[in-house]
Design goal:
There is one protein chain. It is built from two helices and no strands. The protein has one domain: Helix Hairpins (Orthogonal Bundle). The protein is an all-alpha fold. It is rod-shaped, with a radius of gyration of 35 Å.
Length: 151
């Protein structure tokens, strides 16, 4: 193991954490969008199936369908309608979740931008401090050389 520890810049660590959060939010949003697409597809399939059965029931009413068959069709249509209602609610919930994940992603982006700005400011301040120290050493060296020439 290496005995020398390399100190980590706190601002760089903050940027790293913000990047990790951003990536997590991006993944969460992608999953929410995929779920929303899946739920919307299920809703469309149910709506199409329900319409088919309603059309079939209407056609069979004119064709002299048996009362028991008609009752079964109505019950099945009612079940399809309940499933469609559930799918509509699930779609609405998925849309709300996607919107919330979008907002969380935007917040994570802003936090990353803030952290990057703070890191840049800290690095600029450190460079300025180092330049001042270097200039001070140069001035001291010049003064020392000037003092030798005077003597």
């Amino acid at each position: 193991m290496n005995d020398i520890a390399i100190p980590r810049d706190a601002w760089s660590l903050l940027v790293y954490k913000a990047q990790q959060e951003l990536e997590a939010r991006q993944q969460q949003l992608a999953q929410a969008r995929a779920r929303q697409v899946q739920i919307e597809a299920s809703e469309k399939r149910l709506a199409h199936l329900l319409q088919e059965y309603r059309d079939r029931q209407q056609a069979s009413l004119f064709g002299g369908q048996l009362m028991a068959d008609s009752l079964n069709d109505r019950q099945f249509i009612a079940q399809l309608q309940r499933l469609l209602d559930q799918a509509v609610r699930a779609t609405a919930a998925a849309v709300r979740q996607t919107e919330a994940d979008n907002a969380a992603l935007a917040l994570a982006r802003r936090e990353l931008e803030k952290a990057e700005k703070l890191r840049a400011q800290a690095h600029a301040a450190e460079r300025a401090r180092q330049e001042r120290q270097a200039q001070k050493r140069q001035d001291e060296w010049t003064m020392m050389q000037f003092g030798r020439q005077e003597a």
